[in-house]
Amino acid sequence: MLLGVVAVLALAFQAPDASAREDPQLAAVGAQTSGRAPDTAVRAPHPHQPREAAPPERTDAQGEDQFPVLLGTAAGVLLLVAGGAALVGWRLRRQTGGVRPAEMRRRYDHHDAVLHAVREGVLIIGSDGRLLLANDEARRLLELPADAERRPVADLGLEPQLSTLLASGRAATDEVLLAGDRLLAVNVRPTAPRGRPAGTVVTLRDTSELRVLAGRAGVAQERLKLIYDAGLRIGTTLDVGRTAEELAGVAVPRFADVVTVELLEPVLRGDEPTAGASADLQRMAVKGVAEESAIYRVGEVIRYVPGTPMATGLASGRPVLVGDLRTSDAWRQQDPDGTQRVLDAGIRSLITAPLQARGVVLGLANYWRSGASEAFEAEDLAFAEELTARAAVAVDNARRYTREHTTAVTLQRSLLPQTLPEQSALAVAHRYLPAHAGVGGDWFDVIPLPGARVALVVGDVVGHGLHAAATMGRLRTAVHNFSALDLPPDELLNHLDELVTHIDTDEARAAGLGTGTGTGAGAGAGAGGNGRLHGAGTWPGGTEGDPEAVPAHLGRTGITGATCLYAIYDPVTGRVTLATAGHPGPAVIRPAGTVSFPEVPVSPPLGLGSSVPVETTELTLSEGSRLVLYTDGLVENRDRDIATGLELLRTALATGADRTPEETCTAVLDAMLPAHPSDDIALLVARTQLLDPTRVAEWEVPSDPAAVAPVRAACLRMLESWGLAAIDFTTELILSELITNAIRYGAQPIRVRLLYDRALICEVSDGTSASPHLRRAATTDEGGRGLFLVAQFAHRWGTRYTPGGKVIWTEQSLDGGRPEPGPDSTEDVLDQWDDVPAL
């Protein structure tokens, strides 16, 4: 701008010179103003022009008069130049959108770098059909010459359809056109930036390369989906065989045409394979071909020859690829004939991958492809290893579960009755079914009692697994011990409750939980831990069978918890005395076929440590009735509440009134067993039998020693009528001692009863609760040998207590055999007996 001002000033100062040539006077003034020396030369006059007088000399006053004019002119020029510069800057900012030159340069460099780096061809074509710009990718795809820019598109030698489209300028979206040996996806968009002449922008993509990339992406996506599906479909059960089948089902046909799976034999037993152990495998699954066409069928044991791909993978723990089985001599070593059949079936490629979890090889998964599919490649190894590893984790979980389940089932079955004892009171059948998810604490028992009676027991420990099974064993042993004391059902359950409370306390201390009070075992003890208290009746305070309404002081922090039903059947009277602790009551089938569920008073489950007493119920059953005891797993599960289950049980029991106990068990399970039991099921069916009244004899005995002889004589006559004369001597001796003790030390009423069952049972009852004790008498003692003699001649003897006193009983073998003599010979005792005065 400064240069422009200087030029204008120069023109301004030169302007008077031009005028001076026309007006000598002005020329002189201009010369003076410009600083030039005045011309003092005298010009010669023209011959025809009169002579003029010489102009007067310029003065300083005249120069000063012209100076403002010059300043005004300069100022005008400055304004004109400034306006022009402002106009030019405004037009420039309008064209560049306000971007400064440096920023414009930076953007140009970036855009140029991006334009030539993208993997997509870009063309800019002017409104006249000439190519204005082409990036590097466009030049490569169209094979453009170096001087292509500024040339008409029609002269670039493109395919006719592509050339026509580019020259027409019409919009296009992903039109696939031929360009040499490529198929290009062409997009054309018209553009007219900021009012400039219209043009088009063209983008080009090579669809052949896109198809390759899309194919790879599709394969990767499909394999990711297969891995996802494998996570959902493999390991749905805790069965190793089923898990192997699920692996084969997932891989065929999405990864392989045929899949075979083999597991090491220890895995099938739940054991962990060890190094150096036998490498025998058992085939567990074949998928993709008929099992008959496979070299080895499901269930066959395989030992792979060293050097084969399978043996190599098993030893190394890494997958092995055989791209072409036709050229693999190592693979043929296993079975030349069998491998040839595989080749004849079209199988061409193999990947064998070890099933490995936690660094332990559990088996092999073999993936096969036929000639119709692409052969396995190196990149398939990683996928096969990933897929097999997921299945291996599921197999290992199933193996560990199999081990624990087998251990628990073995323990529980060893704790349950292996055979039922012989007795004449009941015909008994039973069933025990462990849950699919793991064994629980259900148990049952049949215990012969003195007096030809039989105790029936059904119980359920809360929880599953080894702990529940072990606790069940402890409780079953305790029930046997308490039954040996011949306790009534309510007292026995009270003692059992104390035992469970002690178990909980000990385990709470061991776990560091303390022994504080709270609500724990009660809420989970009934019905196998589902929080229900079974049976009918009312809690103290009017809460009818509602576990949530149990007073807080009745609960305690429990770990074990259990339920139990204990019943005693007397075949002489046909009476059943039973009590239940949180357990479902029994069902009774009368001989006519009617089914009922007797009302049983509600008592809390074992382990609550409550002060609520256990109550008993008595039922009188006619001969041929069936008593059905069961655990809650039979009538209740996730899909069925207990009310529905009881109705189903009633229906199953009502049909077939003449069934045997075995047939009844089968019919009940067929009608009620769920497909996948979530809890153990114990079922006990007992058909009642009455002892023949002719085999029962009873006498009242007065409190007089002289009454011993007549009663003893009557007993001997009864033995003779029963054909038991062979044991009359020992029976006479036993009765003499027992009756004498009852008269001497007991109280009325005194009774003697003989029962002729599998053994001869002698019972002497009196009205006192004092029990005699066996002791060893000295040689000088006149007494103290009676019970010793009883113990020597009876197979069993004992005392049981009744509400009115006690009963001392003995059992003798019917064949007259004696027990093995003790430390003191029985003959010696008899010799001493002769010195005792006869009663």
TrEMBL record:
Residues 521-544 have a biased composition (Gly residues). One of its GO terms (molecular function) is phosphatase activity. The chain crosses the membrane at residues 67-90. Residues 825-839 have a biased composition (Acidic residues). It holds the Pfam family GAF. The keyword Iron does not apply. Residues 423-688 form the PPM-type phosphatase domain. This is Uncharacterized protein. It comes from Streptomyces lydicamycinicus.
